[in-house]
Amino acid sequence: MNLSGKVAIVTGVSSGIGRATAEALLARGAAVAGWGRTAPEGLNHDRFQFFECDVRDEHAVAEALTNTLRELGPEIHVLVNNAGVGKFGPVDGFKSEDWHVLFDTNVNGLFYCTRAVLPAMKKQHEGHLINVASLAGTAGTANLAGYCATKYAVRGFSDALFKEVRPDGIRVTCVMPGSVETNFGGMEPGQKPDPHKMQPETIAAAIIHALEAPEATMISEIQLRPANVKK
C-alpha cells in the first residue's frame, strides 16, 4: 500500500510503539487519527489528530470512529491495534480485577476497534489491520499467565480474521515483538538505549514494512527479537 494520502488509526498513541508508529505513518504521508486515553505530548502535525478513547469501552470506540470519519473523511485504510497493558504475577495471587483489565484492553478493545472499522474497509475493498501482540503469544512464561493468555488470543484472532477478510481485499498482520524499551509495565526507559532491548522505532519500521508490501503479498505474522543477547 502506498501510504501517502491514506487514513490510519493508531490506538495507544500516547507513547512507545503507538507514538513511534504514528510518527512513521506521518513521515510516509498518511493522515493519522491517534486514539488513546492521553494525547502524545509534543506530537504536532497538520495530518495528525488526537481523539480521546478508552478502547475498553465499545461506546467510546464508536464515538471515536464517528469523530475520525467526520474529521478525516469516510475511508479508513489502516488500523494499528496497539493499545495494551501488562500486569504480571503468579496465578494464585493474581487479582480478578487485573485479569479483567488485561482482557478488556488487550483482547476486547482490539475486537471493538476491529469491528468498528471493518464496514468501511469492506466497502472500499481495501484496508490493513495491524494487531500488535507479543512473543508472549508464542510461548508461556512463568508469572505472565494472564498476559500470555491475552496475546495468544490476539494471535489466534488475527489468524482467523485474515482468512475471513482476505476475500474482501483486507490484509491482517500480527506483529509479535520481544523486549522493547518502553514504559510498558511501569518500567521507565533508561537515558541510554538498552542494547538488549529493541526500540519502539524498530517495531514501527516493521509495521511500515508490512503495510508497504507489494499488492500480491500479505505478511501475516512478524516476530521480532533483539539481535544482542545477554551473556
Strand order across the largest sheet? 3-2-1-4-5-6-7
Largest sheet: 7 strands, parallel
Low-confidence stretches: none
Strand content: 15-25%
In the CATH hierarchy, what is the superfamily? NAD(P)-binding Rossmann-like Domain
- Helix share, percent: 25-40%
Q: What is the level 1 CATH name?
A: Alpha Beta
Overall mean pLDDT? 94
Name given to the CATH architecture = 3-Layer(aba) Sandwich
Cα-based radius of gyration, to the nearest Å = 17 Å
Number of separate strands: 7
Number of domains: 1
Number of helices: 5
- End-to-end distance: 40 Å
Order of helices and strands: EHEEHEHEHEHE
CATH topology: Rossmann fold
| Morphology | globular
Structural class: alpha/beta
Oligomer: single chain
Question: How would you describe this structure in keywords?
Answer:
Rossmann fold, globular, seven-stranded parallel β-sheet, alpha/beta, 5 helices, 231 residues, 7 strands, 16% strand
